[in-house]
Specification:
Layout (H helix, E strand, L loop, with lengths): L16 H17 L9 H8 L13 H25 L5 H17 L1 H11 L11 H19 L8 H21 L8 H13 L9 H4 L8
């Protein structure tokens, strides 16, 4: 091989197909990370990014949609894991709700392409979500459980944990999508927005502002 020659990718040995599958998914994720148009993530582009010929994809994925659905599944798992780590390291109550919220926003900020495609490809499956969306539902369950903890303590007595969790989810998605879409808008810090939303839900008896050190810290990096 001459110094200028481009090394060709060596095909997977028998039993190593999972390695190629991983490379295909990683290539698709790198293309999504560019935050370009979704239609730019073609089979040919994915193959080029993975360093393989396009026909090599078909033993692992039937088409582009199958690749993107697999990316959605992996991203939901990663998002759930990120939120779960934040939940277990924070005290119960409003601090846990805030920790989950800030971890969610940090994940969306650091993985914009993958975050966007979560909702682009999953909305048609909300009524009867397939297996790959279960992790996303589990991630939402962390918020519900955190609100249930507060409700169990009796303050406020009329707290509906499901309503509160869904309302917070709507607010978090709004923050995650609006702030990058309108970069020139004078947004307040994410922690300020989160603190205000949670305070409106839990009421003065669980005043979020009483934990200023935790809630005013910058969000932790998503793993």
């Amino acid at each position: 091989m001459t110094p200028d020659a481009t090394p060709r990718r060596i095909g997977n040995r028998r039993g190593f197909g999972s390695d190629l599958r991983e490379e295909i998914l990683a290539g698709a994720e790198r293309l999504l990370a560019l935050s370009g148009p979704r239609n730019a993530v073609t089979l040919r582009a994915i193959a080029r990014e993975a360093g393989i010929a396009a026909p090599s994809i078909y033993p692992h994925f039937r088409d582009r949609d199958a690749i993107l659905d697999a990316v959605v599944a992996r991203t939901f798992v990663a998002l759930a894991d990120t939120c779960r780590r934040a939940a277990v390291t924070a005290p119960r109550g409003v601090e846990r709700i805030a920790a989950i919220s800030l971890a969610y926003l940090a994940f969306a900020r650091h993985n914009p392409g993958q975050y966007h495609i979560l909702f682009e490809r999953s909305t048609a499956n909300i009524a009867s979500p397939p297996h790959q969306y279960v992790e996303g539902i589990d991630a939402f369950g962390l918020l519900t459980s955190a609100f249930e903890d507060i409700a169990a303590e009796g303050a406020p007595r009329d707290l509906d944990s499901t309503l509160a969790a869904q309302s917070l989810f709507v607010a978090l998605h709004g923050i995650a999508t609006l702030t990058p879409a309108l970069p020139g808008f004078p947004w307040l810090a994410e922690s300020e927005l989160v603190r205000n939303v949670i305070a409106k839900m839990v009421g003065p008896a669980q005043e979020v502002g009483r934990q200023p050190n935790f809630l005013r810290d910058d969000p932790v990096e998503a793993g």
